[in-house]
Amino acid sequence: MEDRDLVSLWKSYDKKLEENLLLNRKNLEAITSIKIQSFLASMKPMKIFTIIIGILWVSVVDVLLINLYTIASPFFLISAGIQVLLTKLAIGIYVYQLILIQLVDINEPIVAAQEKIAKLKSSTIWVTRFLFLQLPVWTTFYWTESMWKNGSIALYLIQAIITGSFALLAVWLFRNINYANSDKKWFRLIFAGKEWDPLIKSMELLSQIHDYKNETINENASL
């Protein structure tokens, strides 16, 4: 066999190898895209359930606030009002997240999909912050004027410690719940589960697809 034939055979083999590698990458991208869609879809049931429970809860509290407005303690009205307001805000964010999940299209440019998932991540952090802001009002809704007029010093101290502790915890969590602390044990404890894990896995897989496409572009450019 002449040298020219060997070179031709080598080029033919090299071309087939490149085609196989390209096909394998495309298949890997397709499989990865399916996984991402599966991860995102797994987040929907919990969010829908949370929205339904949230709507039922705020409906009940709103009815109570309306019916008890003239007779209830101001502490109850203010505490319940703050709680239901934050819950409504959380429901709105969950609805927004469902829309985002529906809008994520793996076939669109990777940057666009990454942007939507980044918004999902950011809104998940924000909704958790808002929900933790409710902590103090769970220690004040049962207060009454009689309690403060006729209570003992011990009662005042205990209540101040409880409410103050919950308020400090709420403020601390609001300030510290951010992605920069995602490696902390307390953060993972709060966010572990269907609300967070599929999101992070989707981000990682999207990054892999981005790398696959960059490798393909670089290889094609070098040919």
From TrEMBL:
Keywords: Membrane, Transmembrane, Transmembrane helix
Top-level lineage group: Bacteria
Membrane-spanning parts: 48-69, 75-96, 126-144, 156-174
Record's protein name: Uncharacterized protein
Species, as recorded: Spirosoma aureum
